[in-house]
Every structure is written in C-alpha cells, then in structure tokens.
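Before relying on records like the one below, remember that each one covers exactly one chain. Contacts with other chains, cofactors or solvent are not represented anywhere in the record.
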Amino acid sequence: MISINTNTSSTLASYNLQKSSDLLQKSLARLSSGSRIASSSDDAGGLAVSLKLSSAIKRTSDASANVSNALSLLQVQAGSLKSAASVLDRLSELATLGSDVTKSSSDVANYCTEYTSLVSELNTLTSDAFNGVSLFSGTTGTLSVYISQDGSQSMGISQHNLTGAYSAVTDFSSVTANNVSKLTDAVQSLATIMATNGAESSRVQFALDSLNSGQVALESALSRIYDVDVASETAKLARANILVQSGAAMLTQANASQSIALKLLQ
C-alpha cells in the first residue's frame, strides 16, 4: 500500500541500519582495544572471571619476584658458608702443623697468629647479611617465604647458628695434638648446615619454576577470555561495514519511494 503518513519500509530500513551500525561500532571498539570484552554488556560473566584472573596473575608475578629474592639470599648464604668451609680447612691444617714436635715455640706462635686471624674472619662471616637481613643467627631462626600467589603455602629458610658450628675451635691451643678432632666435628657441623642450605635452595627453585609455569597458564586462560580474536573480528567488521553501506543505500531508496504518492496526485 502506498501511503503518505507512514513509510514502513523506511522505518524497517532505519532499524536495520541502526543494528548494523551498532555491530560495526562494537567490532571497531574490540579491534582498537584488542579486547573481546569492550564493555561489561559484551560478557558480564567473562569480565568477572577476567578480573579475578588478572589479579591472580599480578599476585603470581609478585610472589615469583619474592621467591627469586629468597633464592638470591640462599645463594649469598651458600657463598658465605663456602668461605667458612675454606677457613675451617685452613684451621685444620694449622692445627695439624702446630702439633709437629719439630716446630719451635716461635713456629707454633706464627701458626697461632694466623689461626687467630682466621677465627676473626669466621666471626666476620657470621654477620653477613642480604639487603639488611641477617644470613645467620645466634640461635637458629627461620625466615618464612610464601611460595603461592594466594599466600596459602610457605616454607622456611634457616638462619643457621654459624657461630655454634665452630665455637669449640676458636682457641688454637685447644685443637692441637690429640684435640684436632674438634675441628673435624666443626667441619661436620658446617657440612650439615651447607646441606640444609642446598636442600632449601632446591625447593625454592622448584617453587619458583611452579610459579612461573602457573603464571603462563593464567595468562593463557585470561587471553582466551578477554583478548579479541583478530581474524574472526576482522571478518565481522567487514560484514558489518557492508551491511551499514547497503542499509544506508536502502534507507535512501525507502525515503525516495514516498515520491510515488506525489506523482499519483498530479
């Protein structure tokens, strides 16, 4: 029916053009932002999940940095222990040399001087620190390291009592002759501390690897939910662009169709 007051075809063409224009704007927003969820209305549930995943990724990254720092502390501690082991080795040599009956009292005094100096070096090692945090303690302490992004899992790093490992061998006269075994005991105590350090370093390294792999998995999950599929969205953009152009052309035709009524009135 040809009418003047109502142009149904124009209204329908205008409605379809608006829908196509909305699709075009949505595709442009997604491609320009790189996000599949350009607004909360696109996927409310997906947006909520993506926010939680994004927060978990940031916490995992920070936890990984903390665990890396803990590993560095253990490595510095291992270096100090290695130095202490070298000092104890030399102390054992000096004690053995000082027990030689062919050595004069002045010779023994020279050994004693070096021995005392090296004990002072051991005392210096006990005060080693990492960023102000003591590596050793007068009584064995523990530093807590959180190895999960939600803080539910943790492990302890030992602040060993290094002084206690060699406290029985600080006096040169007490380790010569048949008392050299005291140095053997000190070496054994230090070896136990070094073994503990190695075990803790190994666990921290595995925890760090776990955090890093977990972060990769979380980022992959977030990408699937939040990131736009460029290939798919480009195809939608092309379709919406064509629909907008054709819709605009049809709206023009629909508006022009009313002119037929004027011709009939002539």
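The CA atoms of residues 37 and 44 lie 9 Å apart.
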